[in-house]
Amino acid sequence: MDDINRYVAESMAERFGVTTGEYMDAMGILPKVNGTPVYEYAKSHKNDIDTMLDCCRAIENVYWSYGSMKMSPEPFYFERAAILSGKAKDYSGEVAICERWIDMAEDFKQWLKTKPKGVMADVTKGPVSKRIYARLPKAQDKI
Fold first, then answer.
1. Residue 27 domain-assigned?
2. Which of 88, 96, 113, 131 would suit a FRET pair with 80, their CA atoms being 20 to 30 Å apart?
3. Is there a contact between 62 and 30 (Cβ–Cβ < 8 Å)?
């Protein structure tokens, strides 16, 4: 899948002279927090619960605002927020974060069924997504 994503990004740059991020920004589908793309916070703020929650909200806002066109939502920020909530012993917050991700993932899976195969990357099948699904019942047991 990385080869496909790299090909798409390189094709975008070659054909249109823009990066995938620039294209997404121009289309209004690049999640941002305070005007900064969420990916800028992945390393620098990964242990900051408030920033991770802001990133989650930005991803949700972009995801739910486009009814007919969906992009597979990034699970990283939701996993980080869930981990940080669990460390803070905020188990109901951890559950809520997992449920928010799972709601988007399930919606995306349903949407994807209506599209030809290979049209869109599906991160809901990836390891981070699987960890969020596995984390939910464990967090629920702690409440």
1. no
2. 113
3. yes
Residue 58, strand partner residues = none
pLDDT in tens, 28-70: 778 999 999 999 999 999 999 999 999 999 999 999 988 777 8
In-domain check, residue 108 = yes
- What is Dmax (Cα atoms) for the chain? 52
Helix pair angle (20-27, 2-16), 10° resolution: 70
CA dist 124 and 15 (Å) reads 29
Residue 26 in domain: no
pLDDT per residue over 100-142, tens digit each? 999 999 999 998 888 877 667 788 889 999 999 999 999 999 9
Number of structural domains (the chain) is 1
d(CA 46, CA 25): 22
70 is in which domain, residue-wise? 46-142
State residue 88 phi and psi, 5-degree precision: -85, 5
Query: For residues 136 and 42, what is the distance between their CA atoms, to the nearest angstrom?
Result: 22
Sequence-distant (6+) residues with CB within 8 A of 79 are 101, 128, 131, 132, 135
